[in-house]
């Protein structure tokens, strides 16, 4: 039997990636955190494509896209993102990247650059991919589509503790503002905006634990 293709979209810090990772383990699927790819391109831009004011120069980035090689490697069961053979899994979670990623992800050149590899990874089935446009653009024929949402205060708490767990000190108000700003840019952009696919199952997990959200998603997968 062909293994399923599952799309998980939703707002920032709704737990999409950590939930997808567990579901992948339970169902024997590959997990692709597409947000990490956009973060990887942003980290590259911050290192290599800035102007005199240290802001990202998008034109420099567009002409350097062919120098970017992003790859996930399995490190003791954890998928670790490498940029040109260097582990950047910690760097992509920094505030500097979070503050710039939505502007980078808005660009057609960047989205086209990442679209092909995302689609080809799903060709053989057996994958769960999380992001913002998976059910709408990347994999419109996915077998299952879920859209995760939660209140902004709950999402702020989750992101704050995620950063603390990575040893990154953050200001709670700044974390909240970054989530609000990113969701706005992601939802309002012209190309592949963050939006629920018409055939997606919406899950508000404000009062659900990670385990409860996973169980709910699995119950739908088994039912359909
Ligand atoms: O899931 P995340 O917070 O790590 O994603 C980082 C940013 O990348 C997010 O603000 C929007 C962008 N993104 C996107 O535009 N499309 C995707 N499929 C995944 C992420």
From TrEMBL:
It comes from the Bacteria. Residues 6-222 form the Cytidylate kinase domain. It is an enzyme of class 2 (transferase). It catalyses: dCMP + ATP = dCDP + ADP; CMP + ATP = CDP + ADP. The gene is cmk. It comes from Chryseobacterium endalhagicum. InterPro entries: Cytidylate_kin (IPR003136), Cytidylate_kinase_dom (IPR011994), P-loop_NTPase (IPR027417). ATP binds at residues 10-18. Signal peptide: none annotated. Keywords: ATP-binding, Cytoplasm, Kinase, Nucleotide-binding, Transferase. Its EC number is 2.7.4.25. Belongs to the cytidylate kinase family. Type 1 subfamily. This is Cytidylate kinase.
